[in-house]
């Protein structure tokens, strides 16, 4: 298995409550399996996955890609690369798209996406949201928790003013304590916020459970990556779970999580860690393979100044991505 490093820069840093994301580095792997060849992508994001160096070591230790999958559980980004490449080979060998290979039923033809808006002034945040709505996005996700709560309230109110009908989401990336989060939920319900993502620290599952039922959905992202679905379900902590295949060990592993979430009555949204084009395409296939597809966080290609494929195999048009139908991933 050949391992090839890459480095991608963002058009501008994405400002989040956990610090800015400025660049994405990772590895492409080239796998032969089932008489086919396919590419896999590992784009680790420390804090969410293993480090770049741990990822490199795990990939360089792979002798047989298929059997290696059983031993890569604590290297989710490395596992993602191998898993998506093996799945891509199998899909291609069956003459199916990855979405068709993953799912039981025919995949969705397109996946709606949310625009992702970083921290900025109220006026800039509202302008970015309005631009997204004008471009056809059905939903916008605003990063919050970087500054004061009062500033976030102004920002989200400005967005709601500028975009009265959009599905509005906010992502706090663990910024708040329980008291602050409860205050936010109270005023955010009046702005018809569809969900608030990860207001509290990843470990505070009971705190998230207590925020539910107050008119704003609670979505868990860091908690799912750190503690797994069983813990989230046992604590009754989420209305929605955010599935990032790069943190969950690949699209097949992420699909298992999605199915179990749906069985428990929890919604799923597929997104990326701002991955390159290969992993983004795999995530689009995963979303399309699920029985219901709300707007997903798959418009992240626009955040990259450089990418792994040109043209983009999964471009956003009118707020949605057309799902590739040819055999394999992209
Ligand atoms: O979900 C989206 O709209 C984009 C992806 C995103 O916000 C993100 C990107 C990299 C790392 C963490 C996150 C996050 O959802 O917290
Ligand atoms: Mg998030």
Automatic annotation (TrEMBL):
The keyword Transcription does not apply. Its EC number is 4.2.1.113. Mg(2+) binds at residues 171, 197, 221. Residues 122-218 form the Mandelate racemase/muconate lactonizing enzyme C-terminal domain. The active site is at 143 (proton donor), 244 (proton acceptor). GO terms for biological process: menaquinone biosynthetic process. Pathway: Quinol/quinone metabolism; 1,4-dihydroxy-2-naphthoate biosynthesis; 1,4-dihydroxy-2-naphthoate from chorismate: step 4/7; Quinol/quinone metabolism; menaquinone biosynthesis. It holds the Pfam family MR_MLE_C. GO terms for molecular function: magnesium ion binding; O-succinylbenzoate synthase activity. InterPro entries: Enolase-like_C_sf, Enolase-like_N, Enolase_C-like, Mandelate_racemase_C, OSB_synthase_MenC1, OSBS_N. Gene3D superfamilies: Enolase-like C-terminal domain, Enolase-like, N-terminal domain. It catalyses: (1R,6R)-6-hydroxy-2-succinyl-cyclohexa-2,4-diene-1-carboxylate = 2-succinylbenzoate + H2O. Keywords: Lyase, Magnesium, Menaquinone biosynthesis, Metal-binding. Its cofactor is a divalent metal cation. Belongs to the mandelate racemase/muconate lactonizing enzyme family. MenC type 1 subfamily. Converts 2-succinyl-6-hydroxy-2,4-cyclohexadiene-1-carboxylate (SHCHC) to 2-succinylbenzoate (OSB). NCBIfam families: menC_gam_Gplu. This is o-succinylbenzoate synthase.
């Amino acid at each position: 298995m050949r391992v090839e490093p890459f480095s991608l820069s963002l058009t501008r840093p994405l400002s989040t409550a956990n610090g800015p994301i400025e660049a994405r580095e990772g590895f492409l792997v080239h796998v032969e399996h089932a008489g086919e060849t396919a590419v896999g992508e590992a784009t680790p994001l420390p804090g969410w996955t293993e480090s770049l160096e741990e990822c490199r070591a795990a990939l360089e230790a792979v002798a047989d890609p298929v059997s290696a999958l059983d031993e890569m559980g604590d290297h989710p980004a490395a596992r993602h690369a191998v898993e998506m490449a093996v799945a891509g080979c199998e899909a291609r060998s069956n003459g199916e798209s990855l979405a068709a290979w993953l799912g039981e039923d025919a995949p969705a033809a397109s996946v709606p996406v949310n625009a992702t808006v970083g921290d900025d002034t109220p006026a800039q945040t509202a302008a970015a949201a309005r631009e997204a709505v004008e471009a056809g996005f059905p939903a916008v996700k605003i990063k919050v928790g970087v500054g004061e709560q009062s500033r976030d309230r102004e920002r989200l109110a400005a967005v709601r003013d500028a975009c009265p009908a959009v599905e509005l989401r906010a992502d706090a990336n663990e910024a708040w304590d329980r008291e602050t989060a409860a205050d936010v939920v109270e005023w955010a319900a009046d702005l018809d916020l569809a969900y608030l993502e990860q207001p509290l620290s990843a470990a505070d599952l009971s705190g998230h459970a207590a925020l539910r039922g107050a008119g704003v959905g609670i979505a868990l992202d860091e908690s799912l990556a750190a503690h797994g679905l069983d813990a989230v379900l046992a604590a009754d902590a989420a209305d929605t779970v955010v599935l990032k295949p790069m943190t969950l060990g690949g699209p097949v592993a992420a699909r298992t999580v999605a199915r179990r979430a749906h069985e428990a009555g929890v919604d799923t949204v597929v997104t990326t860690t701002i991955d390159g084009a290969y992993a983004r395409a795999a995530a689009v296939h995963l979303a399309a393979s699920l029985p219901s597809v709300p707007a997903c966080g798959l418009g992240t290609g626009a955040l990259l100044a450089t990418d792994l494929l040109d043209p983009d195999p999964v471009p956003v048009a009118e707020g949605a991505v057309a799902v590739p139908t040819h055999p394999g991933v992209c």
